[in-house]
Amino acid sequence: MESHLFWFNDEQWAKIAPHLPTNQPGPLRKDDRLILSGIMHVLKIGCRWVDCPKAYGPHKTIYNRFARWSERGIWQRIFETVAAPSGPPEQAALDSSHVKAHRCASGGKGGPNFRRLGLPRAAATAKSTRSSMRSSARGY
Fold first, then answer.
1. Which of 29, 61, 79, 131 would you label with 93, given CA atoms 20 to 30 Å apart?
2. Collapsing DSSP states into helix, strand and coil, what is residue 44?
3. Nearest partner of 21 among 68, 54, 63, 60, judged by Cα
4. How far from 125 is each of 41, 110, 112, 117, 135, CA to CA, in Å?
């Protein structure tokens, strides 16, 4: 097997194999490990299905398996299972970095100023020239 090709190792395949569909109608499937390795190679490299190396099998079979299993949600179940953590990590790293903000990034002096119309205080301090206009218009 060529070294630049993707192949599932035994540990990876042990996680995936129980989630593969069984009891499907039609002819027996070709080697699942071979076909799924071909699918992962295409997704990892980003090549066209037609350009998938012959070591994985026919490109049409690889594409059909990917498309049909995508429609049925099989890939989603496999990815959720494989990506789920198997236990607590052996090591963890803590980072104490922080981001400094500029002093005017808080929104201005005194913080945000929300004033609603119709507050009693606002009505008491409002000035109006309406009464003076009436007196001048009448000639008083």
1. 79
2. helix
3. 68
4. 74, 21, 21, 13, 22
